[in-house]
Amino acid sequence: MKYASVNAKCPTYTEKHTLYVGAHTGSFKRIHAHGDDPFRQQNLQPIEVLNKTSKITCMEFGNADRTEILIGRANRCVKVFDYTKEESISNFEIGTDEVVGLGRSNDCIVVGSANGMVQIVKYPEPVKFSVGENLYRLRLCPEDETRMVTGGKLLKQIIKLWDLETQKVLFTAKNVKKVLELEQPVWDNDVVFVDRNLIAACSRHGYVRLYDTRGPARRPVQDFTSSDPDDQLAFSCLASHGHYLYAGTTTFGARAFDIRRMKNHIHVYKGFTGTVTSIRVDSSGNHLFTGCLDRYVRVHQAHRTALEYKCYVKSKPTHVLGIDFKENQSNNDRNGVDSDDDIQIVSHADGSDPEYDEMFSKMQTVK
Fold it and tell me: Cα separation of 200 and 321, whole Å?
Protein backbone atom coordinates (compact mmCIF):
# COMPACT_ATOMS: atom_id res chain seq x y z
CA MET A 1 0.00 0.00 0.00
CA LYS A 2 1.32 3.45 -0.91
CA TYR A 3 1.25 6.07 1.80
CA ALA A 4 -1.03 9.00 1.05
CA SER A 5 -2.94 11.66 2.94
CA VAL A 6 -6.27 9.93 2.27
CA ASN A 7 -8.20 7.02 3.71
CA ALA A 8 -6.96 3.68 2.43
CA LYS A 9 -7.67 -0.02 2.83
CA CYS A 10 -5.55 -2.84 1.45
CA PRO A 11 -7.54 -5.45 -0.56
CA THR A 12 -5.89 -8.23 1.45
CA TYR A 13 -7.23 -6.82 4.71
CA THR A 14 -10.37 -8.90 5.14
CA GLU A 15 -10.53 -9.11 8.93
CA LYS A 16 -13.83 -7.99 10.44
CA HIS A 17 -12.68 -5.46 13.01
CA THR A 18 -14.66 -2.77 14.77
CA LEU A 19 -12.57 0.12 16.09
CA TYR A 20 -13.47 2.36 19.02
CA VAL A 21 -11.59 5.66 19.13
CA GLY A 22 -11.26 8.11 22.00
CA ALA A 23 -10.07 11.58 21.05
CA HIS A 24 -8.31 14.61 22.49
CA THR A 25 -11.53 16.61 22.22
CA GLY A 26 -13.45 13.99 24.21
CA SER A 27 -15.33 12.49 21.28
CA PHE A 28 -15.91 8.73 21.28
CA LYS A 29 -16.31 7.12 17.86
CA ARG A 30 -16.92 3.74 16.29
CA ILE A 31 -15.57 2.62 12.91
CA HIS A 32 -16.62 -0.63 11.25
CA ALA A 33 -13.45 -1.36 9.26
CA HIS A 34 -15.21 -4.35 7.63
CA GLY A 35 -18.37 -2.50 6.59
CA ASP A 36 -19.56 -1.39 3.17
CA ASP A 37 -18.11 2.02 3.99
CA PRO A 38 -15.02 1.11 6.06
CA PHE A 39 -14.26 4.78 6.83
CA ARG A 40 -17.67 5.82 8.14
CA GLN A 41 -17.44 7.17 11.69
CA GLN A 42 -20.28 7.16 14.18
CA ASN A 43 -20.16 9.44 17.21
CA LEU A 44 -21.22 7.61 20.36
CA GLN A 45 -20.84 10.71 22.55
CA PRO A 46 -22.97 13.86 22.11
CA ILE A 47 -20.54 16.50 20.86
CA GLU A 48 -22.43 19.48 22.27
CA VAL A 49 -21.63 18.49 25.88
CA LEU A 50 -17.85 18.34 25.35
CA ASN A 51 -15.40 20.97 26.54
CA LYS A 52 -11.64 21.42 26.94
CA THR A 53 -11.52 19.10 29.95
CA SER A 54 -13.35 16.23 28.23
CA LYS A 55 -10.17 14.68 26.80
CA ILE A 56 -10.23 10.86 26.94
CA THR A 57 -7.18 9.85 28.95
CA CYS A 58 -7.87 6.14 29.40
CA MET A 59 -9.81 3.36 27.66
CA GLU A 60 -9.93 -0.29 28.72
CA PHE A 61 -12.18 -3.30 28.29
CA GLY A 62 -14.40 -3.82 31.32
CA ASN A 63 -14.76 -7.60 31.16
CA ALA A 64 -13.24 -10.71 29.63
CA ASP A 65 -15.98 -10.91 26.98
CA ARG A 66 -15.04 -7.41 25.78
CA THR A 67 -18.65 -6.27 25.82
CA GLU A 68 -17.92 -3.26 28.06
CA ILE A 69 -15.55 -0.36 27.52
CA LEU A 70 -14.38 1.75 30.45
CA ILE A 71 -13.67 5.36 29.50
CA GLY A 72 -11.76 7.82 31.69
CA ARG A 73 -11.47 11.56 31.08
CA ALA A 74 -9.33 14.47 32.18
CA ASN A 75 -12.32 15.96 34.02
CA ARG A 76 -12.40 12.92 36.37
CA CYS A 77 -15.47 11.41 34.71
CA VAL A 78 -15.72 7.66 34.13
CA LYS A 79 -18.18 6.11 31.69
CA VAL A 80 -19.10 2.45 31.20
CA PHE A 81 -20.18 1.80 27.61
CA ASP A 82 -21.95 -1.43 26.61
CA TYR A 83 -21.51 -1.96 22.89
CA THR A 84 -24.08 -4.78 22.72
CA LYS A 85 -26.72 -2.25 23.83
CA GLU A 86 -24.90 0.62 22.12
CA GLU A 87 -25.40 2.87 25.10
CA SER A 88 -23.76 4.13 28.27
CA ILE A 89 -24.86 2.09 31.28
CA SER A 90 -23.02 4.10 33.95
CA ASN A 91 -21.47 7.53 34.27
CA PHE A 92 -19.89 9.01 37.40
CA GLU A 93 -17.27 11.47 38.59
CA ILE A 94 -14.50 10.34 40.90
CA GLY A 95 -11.18 11.50 42.33
CA THR A 96 -9.46 14.87 42.22
CA ASP A 97 -7.28 14.51 39.11
CA GLU A 98 -7.43 13.12 35.58
CA VAL A 99 -7.98 9.38 35.16
CA VAL A 100 -4.84 7.45 34.10
CA GLY A 101 -5.95 3.88 34.73
CA LEU A 102 -9.12 1.80 34.74
CA GLY A 103 -10.05 -1.82 35.31
CA ARG A 104 -12.51 -4.16 36.95
CA SER A 105 -11.74 -6.36 39.95
CA ASN A 106 -14.36 -8.60 41.57
CA ASP A 107 -17.09 -6.71 39.67
CA CYS A 108 -15.82 -3.40 41.12
CA ILE A 109 -14.38 -0.65 38.94
CA VAL A 110 -10.83 0.40 39.86
CA VAL A 111 -9.90 4.00 39.06
CA GLY A 112 -6.39 5.47 39.18
CA SER A 113 -5.79 9.23 39.19
CA ALA A 114 -2.69 11.15 38.15
CA ASN A 115 -2.09 12.32 41.72
CA GLY A 116 -1.58 8.69 42.77
CA MET A 117 -4.94 8.07 44.44
CA VAL A 118 -6.55 4.70 43.58
CA GLN A 119 -10.21 4.04 44.34
CA ILE A 120 -12.07 0.74 44.23
CA VAL A 121 -15.68 1.72 43.64
CA LYS A 122 -17.73 -0.28 46.16
CA TYR A 123 -21.06 0.20 47.91
CA PRO A 124 -21.61 2.01 50.22
CA GLU A 125 -18.11 3.56 50.38
CA PRO A 126 -15.20 3.22 47.93
CA VAL A 127 -11.84 1.84 49.07
CA LYS A 128 -9.15 4.51 48.71
CA PHE A 129 -5.37 4.24 48.93
CA SER A 130 -2.35 6.08 47.52
CA VAL A 131 0.34 4.59 45.30
CA GLY A 132 2.49 7.75 45.21
CA GLU A 133 2.54 10.96 43.19
CA ASN A 134 3.28 11.39 39.46
CA LEU A 135 1.31 8.31 38.43
CA TYR A 136 1.26 7.88 34.65
CA ARG A 137 -0.36 4.50 34.10
CA LEU A 138 -2.26 1.84 36.03
CA ARG A 139 -3.31 -1.53 34.66
CA LEU A 140 -4.96 -4.68 36.04
CA CYS A 141 -3.82 -8.19 35.24
CA PRO A 142 -6.16 -9.97 32.78
CA GLU A 143 -5.25 -13.36 34.29
CA ASP A 144 -5.61 -12.30 37.93
CA GLU A 145 -7.90 -9.33 38.54
CA THR A 146 -6.60 -8.90 42.10
CA ARG A 147 -3.20 -7.78 40.76
CA MET A 148 -2.44 -4.24 39.65
CA VAL A 149 0.72 -2.62 38.28
CA THR A 150 1.59 1.07 38.47
CA GLY A 151 4.26 3.19 36.81
CA GLY A 152 5.11 6.86 36.68
CA LYS A 153 7.77 9.54 36.69
CA LEU A 154 10.75 9.81 39.05
CA LEU A 155 12.37 7.07 41.11
CA LYS A 156 9.56 6.96 43.70
CA GLN A 157 7.16 5.82 40.97
CA ILE A 158 9.24 2.94 39.64
CA ILE A 159 7.25 -0.19 38.74
CA LYS A 160 5.20 -1.65 41.60
CA LEU A 161 2.93 -4.69 41.73
CA TRP A 162 -0.05 -4.37 44.09
CA ASP A 163 -2.57 -6.71 45.70
CA LEU A 164 -5.96 -5.01 45.44
CA GLU A 165 -7.48 -7.11 48.21
CA THR A 166 -4.95 -5.97 50.81
CA GLN A 167 -3.76 -2.76 49.09
CA LYS A 168 -0.19 -3.94 49.75
CA VAL A 169 2.87 -3.94 47.48
CA LEU A 170 3.85 -7.42 46.28
CA PHE A 171 6.85 -6.38 44.17
CA THR A 172 8.89 -3.22 43.76
CA ALA A 173 11.27 -2.97 40.83
CA LYS A 174 14.82 -1.78 41.23
CA ASN A 175 16.47 0.72 38.94
CA VAL A 176 19.32 -0.33 36.66
CA LYS A 177 22.88 0.08 37.87
CA LYS A 178 24.29 3.56 38.30
CA VAL A 179 26.50 5.10 35.63
CA LEU A 180 29.40 7.15 37.00
CA GLU A 181 27.65 6.98 40.38
CA LEU A 182 24.62 8.73 38.90
CA GLU A 183 21.11 7.33 39.26
CA GLN A 184 19.47 6.60 35.90
CA PRO A 185 16.30 8.64 35.26
CA VAL A 186 12.94 6.86 35.53
CA TRP A 187 9.85 7.73 33.52
CA ASP A 188 7.58 4.71 33.04
CA ASN A 189 4.75 6.22 31.04
CA ASP A 190 3.11 2.88 30.14
CA VAL A 191 3.06 -0.55 31.77
CA VAL A 192 1.47 -3.88 30.78
CA PHE A 193 1.16 -7.42 32.07
CA VAL A 194 2.78 -9.97 29.76
CA ASP A 195 1.36 -12.68 31.99
CA ARG A 196 0.57 -13.03 35.68
CA ASN A 197 4.24 -12.80 36.68
CA LEU A 198 5.91 -10.79 33.92
CA ILE A 199 5.55 -7.00 33.71
CA ALA A 200 6.80 -4.73 30.93
CA ALA A 201 7.30 -0.98 30.91
CA CYS A 202 8.30 1.63 28.34
CA SER A 203 9.72 5.09 28.88
CA ARG A 204 10.19 8.51 27.34
CA HIS A 205 13.85 8.02 28.20
CA GLY A 206 14.17 5.42 25.45
CA TYR A 207 13.96 2.06 27.19
CA VAL A 208 11.64 -0.95 27.24
CA ARG A 209 12.13 -3.24 30.25
CA LEU A 210 10.80 -6.61 31.36
CA TYR A 211 10.51 -7.61 35.04
CA ASP A 212 9.94 -11.06 36.54
CA THR A 213 8.11 -10.75 39.85
CA ARG A 214 8.80 -14.36 40.90
CA GLY A 215 12.57 -14.29 41.35
CA PRO A 216 14.74 -12.53 43.91
CA ALA A 217 16.15 -10.14 41.29
CA ARG A 218 14.23 -6.88 41.14
CA ARG A 219 16.15 -5.39 38.24
CA PRO A 220 14.97 -5.97 34.64
CA VAL A 221 15.53 -9.49 33.31
CA GLN A 222 15.40 -8.19 29.72
CA ASP A 223 15.65 -4.66 28.39
CA PHE A 224 16.16 -2.55 25.31
CA THR A 225 17.79 0.87 25.60
CA SER A 226 18.22 3.29 22.73
CA SER A 227 21.88 4.32 22.73
CA ASP A 228 22.40 5.73 19.23
CA PRO A 229 22.38 9.55 19.46
CA ASP A 230 21.20 9.74 15.83
CA ASP A 231 18.28 7.40 16.50
CA GLN A 232 17.23 8.34 20.02
CA LEU A 233 13.85 6.79 20.76
CA ALA A 234 11.21 7.96 23.18
CA PHE A 235 8.50 5.36 23.76
CA SER A 236 4.94 6.52 24.32
CA CYS A 237 2.71 3.41 24.63
CA LEU A 238 2.98 -0.34 25.03
CA ALA A 239 1.05 -3.55 24.29
CA SER A 240 1.81 -7.26 24.58
CA HIS A 241 0.71 -10.55 23.06
CA GLY A 242 2.39 -13.87 23.66
CA HIS A 243 6.18 -13.51 23.53
CA TYR A 244 6.04 -10.10 21.84
CA LEU A 245 5.93 -6.50 22.98
CA TYR A 246 4.77 -3.66 20.75
CA ALA A 247 5.84 -0.11 21.59
CA GLY A 248 4.83 3.15 19.99
CA THR A 249 7.34 6.01 19.77
CA THR A 250 7.20 9.78 19.49
CA THR A 251 9.06 10.07 16.18
CA PHE A 252 9.88 6.69 14.64
CA GLY A 253 6.57 4.84 14.36
CA ALA A 254 6.26 1.61 16.33
CA ARG A 255 8.62 -1.25 17.19
CA ALA A 256 8.17 -4.92 18.06
CA PHE A 257 10.34 -6.85 20.54
CA ASP A 258 10.74 -10.51 21.41
CA ILE A 259 10.81 -10.77 25.21
CA ARG A 260 13.24 -13.71 24.99
CA ARG A 261 15.91 -11.45 23.48
CA MET A 262 15.32 -7.72 23.67
CA LYS A 263 18.71 -6.29 22.74
CA ASN A 264 17.28 -5.30 19.37
CA HIS A 265 13.82 -4.83 17.92
CA ILE A 266 12.50 -7.41 15.46
CA HIS A 267 10.00 -5.28 13.51
CA VAL A 268 9.49 -1.63 12.59
CA TYR A 269 6.06 -0.29 11.67
CA LYS A 270 6.11 2.76 9.40
CA GLY A 271 3.69 5.30 7.98
CA PHE A 272 3.37 7.59 11.02
CA THR A 273 4.08 11.32 11.01
CA GLY A 274 3.69 12.01 14.71
CA THR A 275 3.60 10.47 18.16
CA VAL A 276 1.86 7.11 18.43
CA THR A 277 -0.60 7.73 21.25
CA SER A 278 -2.15 4.27 21.51
CA ILE A 279 -1.23 0.75 20.43
CA ARG A 280 -3.26 -2.44 20.83
CA VAL A 281 -3.16 -6.01 19.53
CA ASP A 282 -6.16 -8.00 18.34
CA SER A 283 -7.09 -11.29 20.00
CA SER A 284 -5.25 -13.34 17.36
CA GLY A 285 -2.02 -11.37 17.68
CA ASN A 286 -1.91 -10.76 13.93
CA HIS A 287 -2.96 -7.11 13.75
CA LEU A 288 -1.96 -3.88 15.49
CA PHE A 289 -4.39 -1.04 16.09
CA THR A 290 -2.75 2.36 16.54
CA GLY A 291 -3.76 5.97 17.01
CA CYS A 292 -1.42 8.83 16.11
CA LEU A 293 -1.26 12.59 16.54
CA ASP A 294 -1.40 12.94 12.75
CA ARG A 295 -5.13 12.16 13.25
CA TYR A 296 -5.02 8.72 11.63
CA VAL A 297 -6.14 5.39 13.01
CA ARG A 298 -4.14 2.55 11.47
CA VAL A 299 -4.11 -1.24 11.28
CA HIS A 300 -0.80 -3.00 10.60
CA GLN A 301 -0.13 -6.67 9.99
CA ALA A 302 1.87 -7.56 13.10
CA HIS A 303 4.26 -10.05 11.49
CA ARG A 304 4.66 -8.66 7.97
CA THR A 305 4.56 -5.02 9.24
CA ALA A 306 2.40 -4.04 6.24
CA LEU A 307 0.00 -1.12 6.60
CA GLU A 308 -3.44 -2.58 5.83
CA TYR A 309 -5.86 0.17 6.80
CA LYS A 310 -5.87 3.81 7.79
CA CYS A 311 -8.70 6.20 8.47
CA TYR A 312 -8.56 9.94 9.09
CA VAL A 313 -10.44 11.17 12.16
CA LYS A 314 -11.05 14.87 12.71
CA SER A 315 -9.82 14.88 16.31
CA LYS A 316 -6.44 13.64 17.50
CA PRO A 317 -6.93 10.07 18.77
CA THR A 318 -5.67 9.37 22.27
CA HIS A 319 -6.84 5.76 22.65
CA VAL A 320 -7.92 3.00 20.27
CA LEU A 321 -9.58 -0.34 21.03
CA GLY A 322 -10.34 -3.05 18.49
CA ILE A 323 -13.00 -5.75 18.69
CA ASP A 324 -13.19 -8.76 16.41
CA PHE A 325 -16.52 -9.20 14.64
CA LYS A 326 -16.55 -12.86 15.71
CA GLU A 327 -16.47 -11.75 19.35
CA ASN A 328 -19.33 -9.37 18.68
CA GLN A 329 -21.38 -12.06 16.92
CA SER A 330 -20.81 -14.67 19.64
CA ASN A 331 -21.87 -12.18 22.31
CA ASN A 332 -25.03 -11.34 20.38
CA ASP A 333 -25.82 -15.04 20.13
CA ARG A 334 -25.46 -15.38 23.90
CA ASN A 335 -27.78 -12.41 24.34
CA GLY A 336 -30.52 -14.13 22.35
CA VAL A 337 -30.10 -12.44 18.97
CA ASP A 338 -31.55 -14.71 16.28
CA SER A 339 -29.49 -15.75 13.27
CA ASP A 340 -30.12 -17.96 10.26
CA ASP A 341 -28.19 -20.77 11.94
CA ASP A 342 -30.83 -20.95 14.68
CA ILE A 343 -33.72 -21.57 12.27
CA GLN A 344 -34.79 -25.19 11.83
CA ILE A 345 -36.97 -26.37 8.94
CA VAL A 346 -39.40 -29.05 10.11
CA SER A 347 -40.90 -31.43 7.55
CA HIS A 348 -42.99 -34.62 7.65
CA ALA A 349 -41.49 -38.06 7.40
CA ASP A 350 -42.51 -38.39 3.74
CA GLY A 351 -40.75 -35.12 2.94
CA SER A 352 -43.97 -33.14 2.33
CA ASP A 353 -44.95 -29.80 3.83
CA PRO A 354 -48.71 -29.19 4.41
CA GLU A 355 -48.42 -25.40 4.00
CA TYR A 356 -46.62 -25.71 0.67
CA ASP A 357 -49.05 -28.39 -0.55
CA GLU A 358 -52.04 -26.17 0.25
CA MET A 359 -50.45 -23.15 -1.42
CA PHE A 360 -49.66 -25.00 -4.64
CA SER A 361 -53.13 -26.60 -4.78
CA LYS A 362 -54.75 -23.14 -4.87
CA MET A 363 -52.53 -21.84 -7.68
CA GLN A 364 -54.04 -21.57 -11.14
CA THR A 365 -52.78 -23.87 -13.85
CA VAL A 366 -50.87 -22.07 -16.61
CA LYS A 367 -51.97 -23.30 -20.03
Answer: 20
